[in-house]
Amino acid sequence: MINPDHNRIDTLFKQTFFSFKHKDFVFLWLGMFLIMTGGQMHQTARGMLVYTMTESPTILGSITFVEAIAMLIFGLFGGAIADVLNRKTVVLVGQFVTMGLAVFITVFAIIDYLYWYHLLLAAIIQGAFWALTIPARQAMIPGIVGEQNLGNAMAIVGAGTSAAVLIGPIVGGILYGAVGPKGVYLIISIISLSGFISTSFIHRPADTETNLDTKKLVKQMLNGLVYAWKVKDVFVILFVGFLIGLLTNPLRVFLPVLVVDTYQKKSEMLGLFVSTLGLSSLIGSLSLAATGNWRRGLIFIISGIVCGFTVVFTVSMPVYWLALLLLLFFGLGEAGQRVLSQSLLMGRVSDSYRGRIMSLQEMKLGMMFLGALPAGVLAEFLGVELTLKILGSSAVIVSMAVLVKGRNLRRIM
Predict the structure, then answer these.
(1) Dihedral sign, CA of 259, 40, 140, 97?
(2) Distance in angstroms (rounded) separating the CA atoms of residues 195 and 192
(3) Among 201, 281, 379, 404, which residue's CB has the most CB atoms within a 10 Å radius?
(4) 37-90: per-residue pLDDT in tens?
(5) Residue 28 belongs to what H/E stretch?
(6) Contact present, 141 and 157 (Cβ < 8 Å)
(7) Residue 268: its pLDDT value, please?
(8) DSSP code of 205?
(9) Which residue, 145, 80, 92, 397, is CA-closest to 289?
């Protein structure tokens, strides 16, 4: 006799991972996951390596800063290139460069000729090619899984990103201690090569490709900005997602301060807090994959409210185990904002503009990162706890206003 519970679990599993029935999507997802995991390992190893070399927090911060700047500068061009050239080719070139940088660092480390400015240069190149690659990869998804499966596919991609963010730093830190920078970058090179090979197996029909002309590229870029401005739904999703992220992302930035000063815990507790965020983000992404296209617009708005409230309550209750519980909800809200903004945008943008709109989505993340600077200045005057309460409350107000006024967004399935 067949167990009904077993059937329900099997059905839920198939519904959650439905997009994996497309072989090309499996290759695309696996390539993305491997590159992202290697990238997270690189971030951890680079931070340790740079600080060991220089003992300078300024140089360490500068390398991260220039990488973010490169992503912002090349972001719009990346979207325009993704809408002009063959997207699979763009992704493969970006992954090849990523692999090449890992090999470069490995070789220079082996011959004892690696200095911090080599890592600075690699960060600029890496940031530029991430900006060129990500929009092309995201824009390929609708052509592989179909418009009707976009919600599920984007959620699975989000789950892969969350898993890479959760696993990569832990593995990178362990390997760095076990085999040193030479060994860890050799492993990153192998992982990057595996991601490149996986992506190369995609057999979907080629995109329409035209000659790359600089004047046309700039025009394409400007057309993308005009398109985002004129299409109301697209503008609202981009703007609301950016604003909520700008107001709630400082919680991540100030976690070290909260751990030590508010919760009176040792700095080691920070790892548990970050892991909790990564785990809850992974759970949120998989949950969204299971729901498919059900009330995506409404969930997107509610996730902003959840993020705002959890920021306020996290700093209002100076008990670390309550903070851990609240961070679970914050991670779920972040997953809703990130995954649903991508799938909602994909469903409302014509294929010829998808690369440019997804580049705006990725640039939004870089701008949120840079937004931590004014939040830090405000915290110097008002204190971290009051600053986060103000920002979190503002996120709730913005989300509530969108919930009341954004009828079209609420109704999007």
Answers:
(1) positive
(2) 5
(3) 281
(4) 998 888 878 877 887 888 776 677 677 778 878 887 887 777 777 777 788 888
(5) helix 23-54
(6) yes
(7) 52
(8) P
(9) 145
Cα–Cα distance list, 229 to 203, 234, 344, 349, 357 (Å): 34, 8, 16, 12, 11
**C-alpha angle 378-381-387 in degrees, rounded to nearest 5:** 50
Separation CA 143–CA 151 (nearest Å): 13
DSSP 8-class letter at 207 = P
Euclidean distance between CA atoms 244 and 66, whole angstroms: 24
Q: Which two tokens stand for residue 30?
A: 């696996």
Phi-psi region of 350 (alpha: psi -120 to 50; beta: other; left: phi over 0): beta
**Rounded mean pLDDT of the chain?**
80
CB 241 within 8 A of CB 388: no
Across 140-144, 209-213, 369-373, least confident range: 209-213
Residue position matching structure tokens 């090179």: 189
Q: Which of 65-79, 91-105, 187-201, 239-253 has the lowest mean pLDDT?
A: 65-79
Using CB atoms within 10 A of its CB, is residue 180 exposed (0-12), middle (13-18) or buried (19+)?
middle
Please give the full DSSP string across 241-284, using - where no structure is assigned: HHHHHHHHTHHHHTHHHIIIIIS---TTHHHHHHHHHHHHHHHH
What would you report as the CA-atom Rg of the chain, rounded to the nearest whole angstrom?
21
**CA 139, chain centre distance (Å):** 15
Residue count (the chain): 413
Helix, strand or coil for residue 204? coil
CA atoms within 13 A on the CB side of 312: 15
